[in-house]
Design goal:
Blueprint: E1 3-7, E2 11-18, E3 21-28, H1 36-60, E4 67-71, E5 76-80, E6 85-86, H2 87-93, H3 98-114, E7 117-118, E8 127-130, E9 133-136, E10 143-144, H4 148-165, H5 170-183, H6 187-202
Helix pairs in contact: 3-5, 4-6
């Protein structure tokens, strides 16, 4: 029997068994306000797009769930269940490993950006620690880009989340940025764009 893990605005996550293995099934919600044909096409397209991003990130060397199955008609992805601790909870509780974990996060984001991937929703709720490795989940808002500003927006969103959720631990966010800068060939340009984005937001 499927167990509901999370109900979001766009999709519901279920914990299921897939040929005897624990798995997660992500099903995108139909939108009744849309034309049925358009809704089916959009859910199919977004499902395919997210699965592609997850697989591409994995090929780049980023830890992501292994995809087992895609059902475009249903708007569903079946993927590996990552049994671990959500990074959001680890940061809140405090952990001697946090600096290493944050360095891992920064390097992984740099690898994605170097490979032309923008995650789009870099929150600590979308990172899971398993066996000292950080796994990135939920690429539903992700996209392809080689634009430094898009990478800056990715980091800006992470900083905003960190400020709202872990404001007493901003030194750990700094560790992420340090590790990112050491791995990303466009780091100087991205940091410049990040500063510009922060400046613009202050006047909005």
């Amino acid at each position: 029997m499927a167990e509901i893990i999370k109900v979001g605005a766009e999709a519901t996550l279920y914990k299921i068994k897939w040929f005897g293995r624990d798995a997660v099934k992500k099903v995108r919600h139909p939108k009744k306000y849309r034309h049925p044909g358009l809704d089916k096409w959009l859910r199919s397209m977004r499902t395919r797009h997210e699965a592609t991003l997850i697989n591409q990130a994995k090929r780049l060397g980023v830890n992501t769930p292994t995809i087992f199955d895609i059902n475009l008609a249903e708007g569903a992805i079946v993927m590996e269940y990552i049994r671990g601790d959500v990074v959001k909870n680890i940061v809140r509780m405090g952990d001697d490993r946090m600096e290493k974990i944050c360095e891992n996060i920064g390097r992984s984001i740099a690898v994605m950006h170097e490979g032309g991937l923008v995650h789009g929703d870099l929150t600590t709720s979308n990172m899971i620690l398993r066996d000292d490795r950080v796994y990135f989940i939920d690429f539903g808002l992700g996209y392809h880009s080689i634009n430094a500003e898009d990478f800056g927006v990715d980091l800006y969103l992470l900083k905003e989340v960190w400020l709202s959720t872990h404001s007493d631990k901003m030194h750990l966010y700094d560790k992420i940025i340090e590790a990112y800068a050491s791995e990303c060939s466009k780091a100087d340009e991205v940091m410049k764009k990040l500063a510009e984005i922060e400046k613009r937001r202050r006047y909005v």
